[in-house]
Amino acid sequence: RAKENGRNTYQFYTAEMNAEAVNRLMLETDLRRAVEQGELVVHFQPVVDAAARAVTGAEALVRWRHPQRGLVAPGEFLPIAEEIGLIQDIGRMVLRTACAEAAAWRAAGFEGLTVSVNIADRQVTTGRLHVVVNEVLAETGLPAEALAVEVGESLLVRDLPIIDEVLGGISAQGVKLVIDDFGTGYSSLQHLRRFPFRTLKLDRSFVRDVLQDAEDKVLVETVIAMARKLGLSVVAEGVETAAQLDWLLGQYCDLFQGFLFGRPLPPEEFRALLGRPLREVEAVIG
Ligand code: C2E
Ligand code: MG
Ligand code: MG
Ligand code: MG
């Protein structure tokens, strides 16, 4: 297209690309400083057991409280963090913060809550994550069974012995292994069997259109049925409406996460939510 329109368009693209490169360089510099100065914060999104009508835990999600840009989403800075080698530091910080927060929930009487932490592939392939997990649990006093780690399908398709060592080591401590965004990658049933997963998170792209799209419906039904037979629990991500919740309950999906129940919240707001009645669930299941 640029070629067709001639030189002007070409120059336009170049200017735009320069602006992007400058922006990117600024972000890089900012990000290094942000990690040192503690600008990265962890928010918590409730995970709900509808049958028990209770919050069973939360997913820890990192955000960047940027002095000028405001709250920056992880999708905008984690890829940069990976490239410039900051992902290990960030990952350890998130893990430590999440475990300390979960230990505080338990100390406040909310026992049995689980905190779920996202793990970048690199933390597993080069990070000795099983050792880090062990250290952080000891440091924060959180029992291993109150922690879950979420890995993506992109990790599982890589055939590296270190992955078995790290995931096996984490699981052996009693920490739950979760497969995140299930259905978006290229993992097979073989991968599901190779690692001791306890929970499968159904990607929100399937949940979004499940009431309109016949194919998504079949996929979701099948994945939930398969997970149940394998003894895995299923978390449906991205549940936004009562109608989605209602349909998923009919499929015997038991755990839910989405804006219907709550957005990711700063730690103090998440704490305030604990112990409140779950009106959204009651509206659907009575
Ligand atoms: P994820 O692990 O699949 O996390 C769920 C994402 O879906 C979160 O986006 C959450 O805010 C969003 N979400 C939850 N419910 C709804 C809903 O009902 N509707 C919509 N539209 N969105 C919903 P977020 O916080 O922007 O995180 C994006 C991704 O960034 C995460 O996807 C995860 O892959 C990654 N991430 C976040 N925090 C960390 C972290 O600490 N470490 C690593 N390695 N990755 C992280
Ligand atoms: Mg996740
Ligand atoms: Mg997910
Ligand atoms: Mg997702």
UniProtKB/TrEMBL annotation:
Domain of life of the source = Bacteria
Q: Using the record for this protein, list the coiled-coil segments as residue ranges, or answer none.
A: none
Q: Which residues form the EAL domain?
A: 24-278
Per its record, how is this protein called by name? PAS domain S-box-containing protein/diguanylate cyclase (GGDEF) domain-containing protein
* Lineage, opening ranks: Bacteria, Pseudomonadati, Pseudomonadota, Alphaproteobacteria, Rhodospirillales
What stretch of the complete protein does the chain hold?
670 to 955 of 955
